[in-house]
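Sequence design from tokenized structure. All designs in this work follow the same two-part layout: the structure record, then the generated sequence. An example of the structure record is given first.
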């Protein structure tokens, strides 16, 4: 089996990653407006989708894979920790006896809430660096990187013809 063929390669790849970028950024805005556990979890899923898409094309788009992908991975980890805290809080409400006395349960709730605030701050701070660019800028980086990558993968004589055309 030979290399994968992607019709309209750079445009198809760019379209998918830009869509994931917009969806993750939109989910971030929704969370910022109304920070519920479900919305944080939805944001996490959108971040993971974008991260996975960048990993698939990392060799063709190293500018994003090397700079944005590690930040997306870290953001996904932070959002995962927030999800874990939300699950712990829900469990303490649903099964209060599992957490000991009322004083113990209250201590757990306070610690969860305090740690969640710190993680939320870290998530939004990191997200501001990931989602600072315009979708059009992301698309241009992908298309330029993809074209450069494709030229490197082709035989030298073909590259010379492409450049002369």
């Amino acid at each position: 089996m030979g290399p994968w063929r992607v019709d309209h390669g750079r445009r198809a790849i760019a379209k998918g990653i830009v869509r994931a970028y917009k969806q993750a950024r939109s989910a971030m805005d929704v969370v910022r407006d109304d920070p519920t556990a479900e919305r944080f979890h939805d944001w996490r899923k959108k971040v993971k989708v974008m991260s996975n898409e960048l990993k698939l094309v990392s060799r063709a788009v190293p500018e994003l894979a090397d700079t944005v992908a590690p930040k997306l991975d870290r953001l996904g980890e932070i959002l995962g920790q927030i999800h874990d805290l939300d699950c712990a809080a829900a469990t303490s409400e649903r099964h209060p006896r599992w957490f000991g006395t009322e004083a113990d349960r209250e201590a757990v709730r306070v610690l969860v809430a305090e740690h969640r605030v710190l993680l939320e701050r870290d998530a939004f701070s990191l997200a501001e660096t990931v989602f600072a660019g315009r979708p059009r800028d992301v698309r241009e980086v992908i298309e330029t990187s993809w074209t450069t990558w494709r030229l490197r993968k082709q035989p030298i004589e073909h590259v010379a013809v492409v450049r002369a055309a």
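The helical segments are 9-33, 37-56, 62-94, 102-130, 135-153, 156-164. We note this feature because it recurs in several other targets discussed in the main text.
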